[in-house]
Amino acid sequence: MTKRILTGIQSTGTPHLGNILGVILPSIRLFKKYVNTKQFVFIADLHSLIQQNDFEQIQNNAYHIAAAWLSFGLNIEKTILYRQSDVSSEVTELAWYINCCFPYNRLILSHSFKERSKHDKTKINVGLFTYPILMAADILLYNAEIIPVGKDQLQHIEITRSAANKLNNKIGKKLFVLPIPYFHKTTMLIPGTNGQKMSKSKKNYINIFSSDDNLKKQIMSIKTDNTFFKEKKNPDTSIIISLYKLIASKEKVDKMKTKYLQGKYGYLEAKLTLYKCLIETFSFERKQFTFFINNKSLLDNILYSGAKKAKIIANQRLNEIRKNFRLKEILNIN
Ligand code: TRP
Question: What is the pLDDT of residue 333?
Fold first, then answer.
């Protein structure tokens, strides 16, 4: 069978620089490299319901995610781009089968659950607990083998592998392949404006699709130490340089490093250089993003055609899975 590559991004916000450098760009490179694969990219809007109550915002973010992928050149002739909620009946059904064979004790150990339930157990919902099961269903529904993700998702892929095994044992047949994560080496190194890993929830992200002014504000908010303008600065501990390294050429980075070491080079200047570099590097994508966001009906058409393709594959797979549970085929009442 042709290998399948699949990835998803939650619709909790506009994809930030971390999502772009960590997932979107490496995935697009991978898609181009392995032409003979089936490729899926989806917007995990059902997952977003766990944390967000503003449904309009979730759907709006879904457009932003689609627009981001498209502006970075996702080829929709080749890759199926769809919303998770468009295959909700299929994916949640498979999630149920996984629920029924996955050990409760194993799921309690999930990092994301442990981390958030530590603070206040009264504020979390069951969705947060079963989050990895729905994610496993996203993957196993298409028998995807290669999953480009950020490093923070590795445990979820581990859970998916274990779920595939459990399902195979339960039905006594190798119906589910064990997926492998794919991550780019830069993924683990993308700091946010406060130096911690860039993430939506930590509010330390850089949104390259925001207006020039807002982008500048985000860059200006990068944390620096309080060495004076005149003093020499340490390039190895600078968040500005860590970010600059991700987008600028080695020559340019070396130039900035030298200036740090010489002194009489302020953080303000370094930040402006980083800002200009971001604007230049992503000028095409920023224009494309605006184009797509202003053409929602085009995005609707793309997502609709993706949903149709995904649904056909999902239905066939689910019928196969149902057969193994001695359940009847899905009724098609059309
Ligand atoms: N959990 C992923 C994230 O937060 C999003 C996601 C949901 C996903 N389902 C997936 C990623 C399946 C890859 C495959 O980034």
Answer: 60
Per-residue pLDDT averaged across 249-276, rounded? 97
Q: Is 139 in the pocket of ligand 1 (CB under 6 A)?
A: yes
Question: What is the structure's pLDDT at 188?
Answer: 62
Question: Model pTM greater than 0.90?
Answer: yes
CA–centroid distance, 10 to ligand 1, in Å, is: 7
> Do 38 and 181 share a structural domain?
yes
Q: What is the pLDDT of residue 117?
A: 83
> How high is the pLDDT of residue 116?
81
Q: Kindly state whether residues 52 and 71 are assigned to the same domain.
A: yes
Quick check: CB of 153 below 6 Å from ligand 1? yes
Locate the ligand 1 atom nearest the alpha carbon of residue 9 and give its number: 5
Residues 12, 85, single domain; the answer is yes
Q: pLDDT tier at 38 (50, 70, 90 boundaries)? A: very high
Q: Do residues 74 and 144 share a domain?
A: yes
* Substitution candidate for ligand 1 out of 81, 90, 153 with most atoms within 8 A of CB: 153
Residue 204, in any domain of the structure: no
**145 pLDDT above the threshold of 80:** yes
To test ligand 1's pocket by mutation, which of 10, 151, 202 has the most ligand atoms within 8 angstroms of CB?
10
Q: Which atom of ligand 1 is nearest to the CA of 131?
A: 1
The CATH number covering residue 281 comes to: 1.10.240.10
Q: Is the CB of 44 under 6 A from ligand 1?
A: yes
How much is the average pLDDT of 132-153? Answer: 96
Distance 156 CA to ligand 1 centre (A): 8
Q: Is residue 195 part of a domain?
A: no
Q: Say whether both 51 and 140 belong to one domain.
A: yes
Residue numbers of the domain that contains 280: 212-286
Is 258 in the same domain as 147? no
For residues 84 and 101, membership in a common domain is answered with yes
Q: Distance, CA 216 to ligand 1 centroid (Å)?
A: 30
For the CA of 144, the nearest atom of ligand 1: 14
Task: Judge whether 71 and 289 are in contact, CB under 8 Å.
Answer: yes
